[in-house]
Amino acid sequence: MGSSFVENEDCYYGDWVWHSKDSVDNDMCQRLEKCYFCTGCDDCYNSSYLDNCMNMNFSYLCFDCRGSNNLIGCVSLRKKEYMILNKPASRKDFQQTLDKLHHDTNFRKNFQKKYKALKLHIPVKYFWEKNSENCTGNYIVNSKNAHHSYNVTNVEDVRYLYESGEGKDIMDAMRVAGAEMCYEIAAIVNLKFGKFSNLCYQSSNLEYCDNCQSSHDSFGCMSLKNNRYCILNKQYSKEEYEKTMKRIKEHMEKTGEYGEFFPMSLSPYGYNETKAQEFFPLTREQALAKGFKWKDTDLKNHRKQTCKIPKNIADVPDNITKEILACTAQDNAGQPCGRNYKIIPQELKFYRAQNLPIPEKCPNCRHKERATLQNPHKLYARTCAKCAAPLQTTYAPDRPEIVYCGKCYLETIY
After folding, report:
1. Percent of the chain with pLDDT over 90
2. 132-262 — its CATH code?
């Protein structure tokens, strides 16, 4: 249960999680174990509510921390241990605070306010990268010459690339792994020389193809496996294929059809069901005006919750996995979501082991909450708050954070 999970074990919900184990509700993370509700984190263990953290253990509600253990509510710390709100704490105070955060709603709300205030007093780096060179965008790791790219790892010479890894010479693509020399593609694994294609794996020289595997030199095909020289799923000889392809492209160029990805009219999803809504949100009216589809919520399908969720996980009975729960999240107008969801046995086991309360929001709303932690996929021109150097950053000029260039940030944090 999740989207874009790769080589995971006992992981549930979340989005774009790789090489992780025994973790729930995480987004844009790699190599996690026993972690909950983390975003943009790598190499973390037994931690919850981490944002943009690396090499963290036994920590809770932290932002931009590295190589540390036993932190609660900390911001931009390096190689620290037993800290609460960036101040040293005893092991006893640490454990008592953690227990209250798990079980006392009012204490948790007040603590979160202090944590948010702390975040606004500590400078942030204008964009988040690791071992990267000549890049613009955000969350870029082990990459070179990646521009206007977001959440990418091990890529080179790319532009407008989103949530991808292990690629080279790519433009206008999203969620690809192992692509090379590709343009306008989505949900791709190991594709070379591909254009305008979706959900294709271990293939090469594809154009306008969808859900093709181990296929090569094909055009306008769907759901092919181990094929070559196909047009609209029809087999051709190599000579016939090249001759026919030349005629098709000449015609499409004259009519203006060639050179763009599949039109939105072919999408089976509403705009508000896609990743686009997370980073470029539209109202229902705006989406429909642009010709996009929209998925309306059918309130008739919502059922009343069949039990009361205990605040303390120790008081939760085994039969909660048989109950129907209703999401308590509210939209901007204050209307409750009400979407039904269930707790599966593996989830219950995880929450008990981590001493976490049963979530009162559905998986969709929990994902929306995590999505708000990420900066928008847009670059703004502003200057470093310390040295006034010009910056391209995802922090809009009217945001309250103190934004530093890379040099000033390193001097301050280290």
Report:
1. 84
2. 2.150.10
